[in-house]
């Protein structure tokens, strides 16, 4: 049985809804509900539908409903209800370091193919359902340099095509502060943690923004990376005020976690293998070198992703 779904409003209380029919809902004063069903259909309902929402679902989706009373939640659980962020969609997420290697006829660097798969997932609708296949979102309040503010990275559902996407967050996470820097370095590769691959890990310099390191998850190509000391930084460009022209996502993946992460079987060339088997220094990896690093006495790899993002419309 799926986890209970939630209706997120700015009012405290409880409401009875279906477990599996409803995935996301939001209410704002004076606005309508937007409900996302499991099959990715969007329903636009008036606010007066709240009292009869359970009845509506029970009548139309009786074969899928296990109705129960669940808490009303906010999208952000840090106690800051007045959070009205701008929505930016990551349209580029490219692994720069470490590289991935697997044994084909020779020990081959398959990082480019892995990145091409990420790009296809983010920017295409392969199953033709009208939604982009993957949509990592960065919610920022405000996205107005050089002001400081709060942000959170979550998953989302975005309509296709990418150029005219309308996006809705589907995850929850605490909003965290970010700070602008006019001329200073925001983020770069940590000394001694990269292996000289091309293209290199970018350095993000001002005007830019960054946040403080924290634990985070990053989904890509059907797998979830557990990142330690994760940070994100992006550069502002006055000529393109609605874009992050270049950014950096970095975080540490422990070897014991990489051993447990299996590449989905449908990923070309590397499907079915543990992530650690693709990383130089990991058990069974074919590469001659060892790219492992250390963090707090534990071996693993610092992951560096170049990113780009663009402001998108929210429903």
3D structure, described in words:
With 315 residues, the protein is mainly beta. The protein folds into 2 domains: 14-71, no CATH class; 86-311, no CATH class. Helices cover 8% and strands 38% of the residues. The protein has 3 helices and 20 strands. It has helices at 53-60, 111-123, 255-258; strands at residues 14-17, 22-24, 33-37, 42-45, 68-71, 86-97, 101-103, 107-109, 136-141, 149-158, 167-169, 176-181, 185-187, 204-205, 208-211, 214-220, 223-235, 243-254, 293-295, 298-311. The strands form 5 sheets. The protein has an 8-stranded antiparallel β-barrel. Strands 2-3-4 form a 3-stranded antiparallel sheet, with no helix packed on it. The protein has a two-stranded antiparallel ribbon with strand order 1-5. The longest helix is centred in the middle third of the chain and has 13 residues, at 111-123. It is globular, with a radius of gyration of 21 Å. Mean pLDDT is 78; it is low at 1-34 and 36-81.
């Amino acid at each position: 049985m799926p986890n209970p779904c939630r209706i997120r409003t700015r009012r405290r209380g409880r409401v009875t809804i279906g477990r599996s029919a409803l995935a996301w809902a939001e209410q704002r004063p004076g606005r309508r509900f937007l409900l996302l069903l499991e099959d990715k259909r969007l329903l636009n309902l008036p606010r007066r539908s709240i009292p009869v929402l359970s009845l509506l679902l029970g009548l139309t989706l009786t074969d899928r409903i296990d109705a129960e009373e669940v808490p009303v939640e906010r999208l952000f659980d840090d106690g800051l209800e007045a959070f009205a962020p701008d929505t930016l969609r990551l349209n580029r997420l490219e692994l720069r370091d470490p590289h991935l290697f697997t044994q084909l006829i020779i020990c081959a660097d398959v990082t480019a193919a892995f990145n091409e798969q990420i790009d296809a997932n983010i920017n295409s609708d392969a199953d033709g359902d009208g939604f982009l296949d993957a949509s990592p979102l960065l919610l920022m309040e405000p996205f107005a340099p050089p002001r400081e503010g709060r942000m959170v990275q979550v998953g989302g559902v975005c309509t296709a095509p990418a150029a005219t996407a309308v996006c809705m967050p589907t995850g929850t996470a605490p909003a965290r502060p970010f700070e602008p820097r006019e001329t200073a370095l925001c983020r770069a590769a940590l000394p001694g943690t990269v292996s000289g691959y091309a293209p290199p890990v970018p350095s993000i310099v001002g005007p830019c923004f960054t946040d403080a390191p924290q634990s985070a998850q990053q989904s890509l190509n059907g797998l979830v990376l557990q990142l330690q000391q994760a940070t994100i930084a992006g550069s502002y460009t006055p000529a393109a005020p609605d874009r992050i022209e270049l950014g950096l996502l970095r975080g540490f993946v422990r070897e014991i976690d990489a051993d447990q992460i299996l590449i989905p079987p449908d990923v070309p060339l590397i499907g079915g293998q543990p992530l650690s088997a693709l990383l130089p220094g990991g058990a069974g990896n074919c590469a001659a070198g060892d790219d492992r690093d250390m963090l707090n006495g534990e071996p693993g790899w610092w992951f560096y992703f170049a990113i780009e993002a663009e402001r998108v419309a929210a429903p």
